[in-house]
Design goal:
By secondary structure, the protein is mainly alpha-helical. It has helices at 9-31, 36-59, 66-69, 73-81, 96-116, 135-168, 174-180, 195-215; strands at 2-5, 182-185. Helices cover 63% and strands 4% of the residues. The chain binds protoporphyrin IX containing FE (HEM) (2 copies).
Length: 227
């Protein structure tokens, strides 16, 4: 068995920045006073991270690609049968069950960030898409923004629980691998992190988010006053 690179730097950075962003998103509405403007900025950054990760899922390195960890139901089912087997061969990238879990997390994060664009703090600040939507859509987005976070909390708890299960029960060091990128494996991993490509993808993701929040939505209308 040799140490080999599995998780490229962009995927690892994405992961830990998403963790930090979610903590900050929670803090800016629940713990800190009058930090909703920061909640917006960090929300846009989270949106950027998600757009980046989705594109990276198509053009990134081998184990970051969706095609490498989105598998059919039979593969997932066969994997589940080996779940409690301590001797089962560790997955090189995401395992078939974990792969679907990643998809669920990305979908929830997308719902959370997009629904945020329609939110208001009911005092000064309106999300950039608030003017675009009717009452019903706004109510739906409000519900989604609250609900998706509650669901996310359970999903994150399960995610961390699963990581602990693999570390303690299966003795697989998944967390260090998400930090330094390497795993012990008989099969060769990736040769490099494709940083230049990641940089181009990051520029595209940033441009897409900028267009979506600054260029596309109509300028906020001035309130109408009646004298
Ligand atoms: C806000 C909380 C968290 C969120 C939203 C989150 C989300 C994710 C996502 C989306 C992935 C897939 C990475 C990718 O392919 O791009 C992932 C993988 C991973 N996360 Fe987290 N994560 C969170 C917290 C944590 C924490 C606290 C730990 C460490 C204890 C952790 C450890 C890992 C590990 C080890 C993997 C790789 C799993 C594997 O080997 O298949 N995560 N996480
Ligand atoms: C993934 C990113 C995001 C996360 C994790 C997140 C999380 C949250 C949470 C936990 C709450 C509190 C909900 C409650 O009270 O039950 C909240 C409220 C809110 N969010 Fe987000 N949010 C995100 C993105 C955004 C974005 C992009 C915007 C706007 C551009 C936004 C605007 C708001 C507003 C206006 C509120 C209500 C604040 C208040 O009650 O004063 N959020 N968000």
């Amino acid at each position: 068995m040799q140490k080999t690179l599995i998780w490229d730097i962009p995927t690892r950075l994405f992961h830990w920045l998403i963790v930090a962003s979610l903590l900050a998103q929670y803090a800016t509405v629940e713990w800190l006073e009058n930090k909703v403007q920061w909640h917006f900025y960090i929300g846009y950054f989270t949106l950027f991270l998600i757009v980046f990760r989705i594109i990276w899922g198509f053009v990134g390195t081998q184990h970051a690609k969706f095609s490498s960890f989105i598998t059919g139901p039979r593969t997932v089912f066969n994997y589940i049968k080996t779940l409690f087997n301590r001797q089962s061969e560790p997955a090189i990238g995401h395992n078939p069950l974990g792969g679907w879990f990643v998809v669920v997390m990305l979908v929830l994060l997308t719902i959370q960030a997009v629904s945020g664009l329609f939110m208001t703090d009911d005092i000064f600040l309106d999300g950039p898409y608030r003017q675009l939507a009717g009452e019903e859509t706004l109510a739906l987005m409000n519900t989604l923004h609250h609900l998706a976070f509650d669901v996310l909390l359970y999903v994150i708890a399960l995610h961390i629980g699963a990581v602990i299960f693999y570390s303690v029960y299966k003795k697989q060091k998944l967390v260090p691998a998400m930090v330094h990128g390497n795993k012990e494996s008989a099969t060769a991993g990736i040769t490099d992190s494709r940083i230049l490509r990641a940089f181009v993808v990051a520029l595209i993701a940033a441009a897409a988010v900028y267009m979506a929040i600054e260029v596309y939505p109509p300028a906020p209308q001035a309130d109408e006053y009646y004298y």
